[in-house]
Amino acid sequence: MTDEIYRASTTAPVNIAVIKYWGKRDPKLNLPTNSSLSVTLSQSDLRTHTTASCSPSYPSFDSLLLNGSEQDVSGARTQACFRELRSLRRNLEGQDASLPKLSTLPLKIVSENNFPTAAGLASSAAGFAALVRAIANLYELPSSPTDLSRIARQGSGSACRSLFGGYVGWEQGKEVDGSDSVAFQVAPESHWPEMRAIILVVSAAKKGVSSTTGMQTTVATSSLFAARASDTVPKRMKQMQEAIQIKDFETFGKITMMDSNSFHATCLDTYPPIFYLNDVSRAAIKMVEAINAAAGRIIAAYTFDAGPNAVIYYLQENEAQVAGLFKAFMGEKDGWKGTRGDAIQASEEAFGKMKGEVGVAVDLLKEGVSRVILTGVGEGPVETKESLIDEKGQPISTSS
Ligand SMILES: Nc1ncnc2c1ncn2[C@@H]1O[C@H](COP(=O)(O)OP(=O)(O)OP(=O)(O)O)[C@@H](O)[C@H]1O
Ligand SMILES: C[C@@](O)(CCOP(=O)(O)OP(=O)(O)O)CC(=O)O
């Protein structure tokens, strides 16, 4: 083998669950206590870009540079991903002696998130999906997105869903080794491309209780949790998949909101309690309720992950009554400029109906929201020629 530098790059999306993963039956393998379902968001707005590379000329340790700062790769989750991918490459090399022995070389990985890391914007999901996809590309593995979802899951549970675009489920599985705990595509983005999301970034700071720790405490202490996992979620998984198949937004929206509420109820039922929602989050809920009341049906649906940021799903046809309303009330925030935001006009009629009722909520949102992100359903990881490592093996920064 010469001192060649081998490189491959990908981008990967964020996903925001409409039926939440919360609880592990096996914390080492990230095997969940319930199935979950998410919408993959467009990479034009939120994405991780990762280049994986290996070379005999590299220092003899694996490394990961994330947004310009060196990360610790010795953690069990990153190590599990590296180990599984190397083992698949080793099998290929065993079958074909002409292949370079990439599995024996140190990995150098450079990654950039175009959004804040660990702020509840699902950076670990996009991050681990990109890491696994980029190394699989580097190793030229024939693995399917399903196979890779099994590996990405070990990096971060929700990452398994970011291997697919569109509407994506994660089957909890039954096997102790996790072999059947994989992601699957419920429908591609082209099936229901009108799905939009507005994200109200409430706090871009690092969150208080991490998902990993939070869900462990919930499993150990909440009595509500057991019913959620055994009863509530299995029923909702079925209803949600049907709603997506027939593009029934009212059902999609109702289940989305109820499941977010149920997840946060188990957080409150955890001892000591976990509070991810704050007054600004509750103001976002109030606004969505007012929007739906003005429309006389569900046209907007909120959901919250392990943090106060609101993600509000709606259909393009209702943009004026949903995103338009937020723009009318808080159009001075960052994020409205650009092709997507400029095109958004408020519905005068809906604005008139709501104005009198939402004064307090609007004040809270104006004060607590730092910016909005306008996005929609999008595709899965995309291989790219744009490399974050040059031909000499040095990192290239694309930010700034
Ligand atoms: N591009 C990336 N490449 C590899 N790992 C990443 C990347 N981005 C984030 N991570 C990992 O994910 C961690 C952040 O995950 P964490 O679960 O705390 O936050 P989050 O994903 O933003 O929130 P949540 O998953 O609850 O929505 C980082 O500390 C890092 O280990
Ligand atoms: C609330 C959630 O966003 C929790 C995500 O948890 P993580 O996937 O971040 O947890 P780990 O598996 O411990 O890394 C709900 C969801 O995305 O389904």
From TrEMBL:
Domain of life, per lineage: Eukaryota
GO biological process: isopentenyl diphosphate biosynthetic process, mevalonate pathway; sterol biosynthetic process
GO molecular function: ATP binding; diphosphomevalonate decarboxylase activity
Keyword Transmembrane helix: no
Enzyme Commission no: 4.1.1.33
Catalytic activity from the UniProt record: (R)-5-diphosphomevalonate + ATP = isopentenyl diphosphate + ADP + phosphate + CO2
One term under GO cellular component: cytosol
Keywords: ATP-binding, Lipid biosynthesis, Lipid metabolism, Lyase, Nucleotide-binding, Steroid biosynthesis, Steroid metabolism, Sterol biosynthesis, Sterol metabolism
Record flagged with keyword tRNA processing: no
Domain Diphosphomevalonate decarboxylase-like N-terminal as annotated: residue spans: 12-183
NCBIfam families on file: mevDPdecarb (TIGR01240)
PANTHER family recorded: DIPHOSPHOMEVALONATE DECARBOXYLASE (PTHR10977:SF3)
Protein name: Diphosphomevalonate decarboxylase
